[in-house]
Write the structure tokens for this entry.
Amino acid sequence: MSVNQQAHTGPPYGQPQPGYQGYQQPAYGGQSLPGVPQLQYGAYNGPMPGYQQPVPPQGYFPSLGFPSKGSPVSLNSDTSSLAPNFIGSLRAPPTSGAPPPASGASHPSGHPAYSQFEHGDVQNGIPASATPMQRPPASQPFLPGSAPTPVSQTSAFQQYGPPPASVQQLSNHMAGMTIGSATASAPPPAGLGYGPPTSVPPVSGSFSATGSGLYTPYSASQGPPPTSVSQGLPLAQPPFPGQTVSTQRLPTQVPGFAPPPPSTGVGPSSYPPTTGAPRPPAMPGPPLPGQTLAGPPSSQPNHVSSPPPPSAMSGLHPGPPMSGLQGPPPPTHPPQPGYQMQQNGSFGQVRGPQPNYGGAYPGTPNYGSPPGPPPPPKRLDPDSIPSPIQVIEDDRSNRGSEPFVTGVRGQVPPLVTTNFLVKDQGNASPRYIRCTSYNIPCTSDMAKQSQVPLAAVIKPLAALPPEETLPYLVDHGESGPVRCNRCKAYMCPFMQFIEGGRRFQCCFCSCVTEVPPHYFQHLDHTGKRVDFYDRPELSLGSYEFLATVDYCKNNKFPSPPAFIFMIDVSYNAVKSGLVRLICEELKSLLDYLPREGNMEESAIRVGFVTYNKVLHFYNVKSSLAQPQMMVVSDVADMFVPLLDGFLVNVNESRTVITSLLDQIPEMFADTRETETVFAPVIQAGLEALKAAECAGKLFIFHTSLPIAEAPGKLKNRDDRKLINTDKEKTLFQPQTSFYNNLAKDCVAQGCCVDLFLFPNQYLDVATLGVVPYQTGGSIYKYAYFQLETDQDRFLNDLRRDVQKEVGFDAVMRVRTSTGIRATDFFGAFYMSNTTDVEMAGLDCDKTITVEFKHDDKLSEDSGALLQCALLYTSCAGQRRLRIHNLSLNCCTQLADLYRNCETDTLINYLAKYAYRGVLSSPVKTVRDALINQCAQILACYRKNCASPSSAGQLILPECMKLLPVYLNCVLKSDVLQPGPEVTTDDRAYIRQLVTSMDVAETNVFFYPRLLPLTKADVDSDSLPAAIRNSEERLSKGDIYLLENGLNIFVWVGVSVQQSLIQNLFGVSSFGQISNTLSALPILENPFSKKVRSIVDMLQRQRSRYMKLIIVKQEDKLEMLFKHFLVEDKSLSGGASYVDFLCHMHKEIRQLLS
Ligand SMILES: [Zn+2]
């Protein structure tokens, strides 16, 4: 091997060169044998020599560089290592109380009516109506030549089958029984604690609503996300006359702090005073503390430091961008000497280099509102501070029309709130990777000085809109992907071919590697391989490789994964109707298991378990006339009582499965068992997957704190008195380390856990969530579950969760070019070493945030590179590598850093960082650290990038002008500053949820979208223009919708026209509107249709089905709604936006002085 032989002299990056085409290439991947997929892997001769796995994780053995799973870790091997600080909790006596009242009311009337997270939180999901019948393939075969299609592989995996185990040979703590119409009346073994029915009653007629009829929506094709959201928004306006567009992001001045001189034109003079709608109430802004306002005006002749005259506050403009705030003065005003730099930071945002961006600056000539009541002097006008709505609208109008082409290094993508298409020309789409900055400081000192975190938010299996191309699947045959000899980076567009194509130099570590003979290709006169455009791995930012057997656990190709449905059948679950609902749903849902590509049926096998304080396994082998039940009552040492017949193919065993699902609700209909176990349930699923030698997912439907005597038993340790004390962190920590160890075993097996919780009281989400969280699973929570109001939400979530794109047994590694490296990771995963992120399952919604630190100098010439490689097993059991590459710029000037930042991504990182911090530090410490870091970021900008000006001026970088408002939302979120209505479980739940959110989800979660429904145009597809999240923006004559990804509120003002109420709710007056509605009535009128279509569209955009809550103005539920008006002061003590901005300004001034 000629490693490190010589440096090449060519440019470090092989950018795609438009216009180059036309080489006819022989089929690549000459080793592959199309049509005979099994042979592809037949003769592999072992891993490439020379690679040392740097830190072999426990349970793995070094292979080609990507760790493959080694022998399964023994389940019990680690259970002795409970952390000392949790001693005691395991042995606590059971605290279960008396059985619930016979009335069966599972919804205690004394409960608060809502917890905003309970139901809604859990969801998202594309509603069934939007779910496609056919899932698009996760990736598609790349067939420029004769690459074999991946699909044909599946036949190799069909054989599953541990030797049949006789059900008779059950151990003495387990009893076998056959369930069926003939035998179901036989009681289960005595002493099991539940009372089976003595006869099989007919299926209750009351369940008709949950039958398979609900499935009709599956046939609907999934619509693309709305593409016209920005259209029709009144705020998106015609070009600002004469405004020139700068390609740099410019700073924003907050006028209230230190307004620019009147002559700059910021202020009323720039807007036609007579246009626009008046804002309803007077300015609510609190008085501006004198010291934050600005220096004395007289000392700064060019800067008016006192608040501008009322008209200059532009307070009359409802959230317009152009208002006096920072707006760049229109060109007609003479520039002020010394003021230039800050001046053009206008609201209209120009983000990063925009090659295709036309010259006209979209502005709002008519934007201004007519003069309303002048604001009282000395108040900071909320309209004069940066508006999220305006930034979002500006980005939509500036960047929503052109596709985002990824060929250029360091390009800042459009905001997540903008609809845009992506064309992959060598860098990964922002749907896969977003960065806090696309221009990285060259040195660690610079990075430290700025305090801007360098992080990437990565969503490796992100779903793409139908218009975009899924990653191509590249098959290099038995030799596997071509990789750098030293760092093991995968072939990518930035590798540099040298010596006529015989070698390539690694773009990550500079090592020179010989090109394998089968991969050799000549170079053209520019040094580019002539097959450049024929190979995804040379020309695209994202693609997949078919993995060889060396990338597989035990050097064996994996079996297709399995799904195991594990249903709590304790008293509450049965009485609430949940058990019946789940069983009915599964009958049809099993037809929609994930399929690979164009496969006719899913390769995924299924199994079923029910449990309370014992576990019931079911044999649903196709040859049986009736399912058989096996009860395991010794939960202390869980095992799986049957192998053959537990995991089955749905189609083959359909009759038996249907029979089982019909019988389960009847068998437990009269149960009085209230206690449940939890850890043994996971152990059972894990053992079943181990026995079947496959990865998979457990779907656990669980209702209560597991207090029954068993491993992982929990006690109720909820204590709200700990809030705001040094012990508050314990509320977020698991009460026992048992589950951490269990999670580790699950990850080793590729056993992902999705948990659906239906609590009526505290059930310790912080502890129950450990395994789902560390295995890459999801948690859904439906507090006080009621069939009538919550079933749609739950079913939509379940359908989406079962059907969505998911990879198993996944390992992700992020490689970087010399100078930076990945140092920290946030998300739902497990790490056994410092570099590899392991996930038993990884679905299309899960995000991993990665932080980078310098370990050397970077150069402006070569920039910086990231390569994210995800090794996973597809839903058909195919082992694959998904590769995402991204190139970033590097800078020696801080201004370049600040011009290429992405605040939404920054907030995603900061929220995750803070939410992890609460595990180890008091919440107040975490909050203070966040404020301090942001103050430093902004102070550094002010000191190094803004031109000299009064210290009294608050000057924000254009790309970060929303940092204060968004940061404030994070600070007042329920995790960091809970109100009285937020439960401990809500906080733990939200904390875990946010940790795997992508940038779009954190954006709307922290700053919800508020839409005036009464302004909607019933004749168009567009959404009404969003407004800012403040009560003062609401008019009592209107109806509004607020969504944050978990909930949708419909707020109705007291003075709304009767006709609107009639049209939307079907009742004749405000007083008759029921606030217990969980859906809007279906009424045949344009307004009702429009509003419902908006709700449906929003539901489709989110990964969980949002809970719909109707709020009437002045009703008691309004308090809950106001919690989400995040620009206002919150009841829990959170600052208003205006106050927080003043506070930040003070912090910044202190840092500067
Ligand atoms: Zn390398």
In short: The longest helix spans residues 923-944. Residues 484, 486-487, 489, 506, 508-509, 511 surround zinc ion (CB under 6 Å).
